[in-house]
What we know:
Elements: H1 2-10, H2 22-26, E1 31-35, E2 38-43, H3 45-51, H4 55-59
Antiparallel strand pairs: 1-2
Amino acid sequence: MINSVYEKTLTGKTIVFLGGCEATLSSCDKIYLFENKRVIASGTHKALSQDYPGYHLVKNQ
């Protein structure tokens, strides 16, 4: 339900989420991972899941 609300009201806008469940992350156009105030990886949920070894740790927290 929350994702459908996001889609209806936030389409075409830039939104910054801090955290988020996997369903929310999978609908994002771009995800940035930060460590020590620096971007350490970015990409789609699918790309990060496949290419970035630490991403599964973040999404499972």
